[in-house]
Amino acid sequence: MVNIRIGNDIPLVWKFFYPLQQGQTEREPYDLTGKDLQFTMTVGYHTEISLPFTVFGNEIHTTFYGKDQHKLGAYTLTLAENAGRTGMHTID
Predict the structure, then answer these.
(1) pTM score, two decimals?
(2) Are 37 and 52 within 8 A, CB to CB?
(3) Taking all residues of the chain, what is their mean pLDDT, rounded to a whole number?
(4) Fewest CB within 10 angstroms: 26, 68, 72, 80, which?
């Protein structure tokens, strides 16, 4: 976890990989291009913020602007693929 003062623009890059299989030494990138994705940030248990993002291969890029930061506390990022459908995958 990283502590950042509220009120600062925070650029975020989140990279995704397949889990390592037995005998593998390097992770294979998980390509997000063209997938049905929902990217949210949650603070506390009730406040969920949908963030605009851009996909570059296995990376999600976004900025959480200081002007949009209203609550102190720990924020959780969540990415859902195929939300509410068969083949759904969710990661925090």
Answers:
(1) 0.82
(2) no
(3) 88
(4) 26
Copy the structure tokens of residue 89: 């995958």
Rounded to an integer, what distance in angstroms lies between the CA atom of residue 24 and that of residue 12? 28
Alpha carbon 63 to its chain centroid, in Å, reads: 11
Q: Do the beta carbons of residue 50 and residue 39 sit within 8 Å? A: yes
Question: Which of 74, 9, 19, 18 lies closest to 43, judged by CA?
Answer: 74
Among 77, 76, 79, residue whose Cα is nearest residue 38: 79
- The span from the CA of 35 to the CA of 82, in Å, is 8
pLDDT in the model for residue 69: 84
- Residue 14: pLDDT over 90: yes
